[in-house]
Amino acid sequence: MIEVKGLTKRYGEVTAVNGLTFTVRPGLVTGFLGPNGAGKSTTLRMILGLNRPTSGSATIGGRPFVRHRAGLRHAGALLDAGDVHGGRSAAAHLWALARGNGLPRRRVGEVLREVGLEGVARRRVGGFSLGMRQRLGIAAALLGDPPVLLFDEPVNGLDPEGVRWVRGLFRRLAAEGRTVLVSSHLMSEMEHTADRLVVIGRGELIADESVADFAARGTGASVTVRTPDPAELAAVLVEAGARVRHDRASAGAGVLTVTGLSADRVGELAFERRIPLYELAPRAASLEQAFMELTAAHADHRTSALKAGGQAGWRDDGSSAASRSGARKEGV
Ligand SMILES: Nc1ncnc2c1ncn2[C@@H]1O[C@H](COP(=O)(O)OP(=O)(O)OP(=O)(O)O)[C@@H](O)[C@H]1O
């Protein structure tokens, strides 16, 4: 379990994280989402004791991470896949970590097999692709067989097969009862991977709930209804204030997409007018749409980034080099 309470981090004038409070539970994959600069990496670094909070606390299993001896047995993390000594082999890199944490040598071979790098164990990490480095970072996180795992943008650089593999790995780790926290800017990725979402914007908590509850908050929610009398039903629904789109005919019936009325109300109106229904299904807004709506107020930097000729919206290069190297310079 990870517990974050009133966590705040200021860098001079910049408040990177502002009074964050949330709990990450075992047995679930929790997605940690937010626009660029929302404070995800800073939060993960504070949870791992790499950045010192200005105020508030973060604990893993009830204690600050730095108070755990042989830390890799308690929590494993992939923060920055590029942050590896390029002159070492994959096996040597992992063996150095294992030795420092009192872990047996056999774990090196086990985790290399787990991530599919056993064939390149003796190769220098300097020649690895970004995807291979991500796999190596995941191997390092798994080395101590820890109950708590944190991954910062783990799918960057992975090919489609790698993405599928990593999704399956996270689901398995959660099914084993571990606490799994995964940061991402890819909404679609979280839709397939996470059970819960912690969403932040400008360092503040926006949502902490199940994926389904989060998606249901978007205004793009609609109702799909199939009926042999689509024209008549459409007229009734429009009269009641709905917007109706006639999509297609299917198995002798018309399919309507209705927005602005709940599925319950659509069913009631059809019943009152004695219009038969073959199908009535509420559809939540897409996660992406709900996310864009809910974070809009916390992400006005998108516009300024565009004006400045910088990158707007979601990060797609897997790095925020300035902030990360800056955070490293803090020397904690
Ligand atoms: N060492 C630092 N010195 C000054 N400001 C920093 C430092 N580290 C981070 N920041 C600032 O804190 C804010 C949060 O940055 P952080 O990297 O945690 O966000 P993020 O959600 O991980 O973003 P991204 O997805 O772009 O990596 C940003 O405004 C960033 O510029």
From TrEMBL:
GO terms for molecular function: ATP binding. It comes from the Bacteria. This is ATP-binding cassette domain-containing protein. It comes from Nonomuraea composti. PANTHER family: ABC TRANSPORTER, ATP-BINDING PROTEIN. Residues 305-332 are annotated as: Disordered. Belongs to the ABC transporter superfamily. Residues 2-227 form the ABC transporter domain. InterPro entries: AAA+_ATPase, ABC_transporter-like_ATP-bd, ABC_transporter-like_CS, P-loop_NTPase. The keyword Transport applies. Keywords: ATP-binding, Nucleotide-binding, Transport. Pfam families: ABC_tran. The keyword Iron does not apply. Transmembrane segments: none annotated.
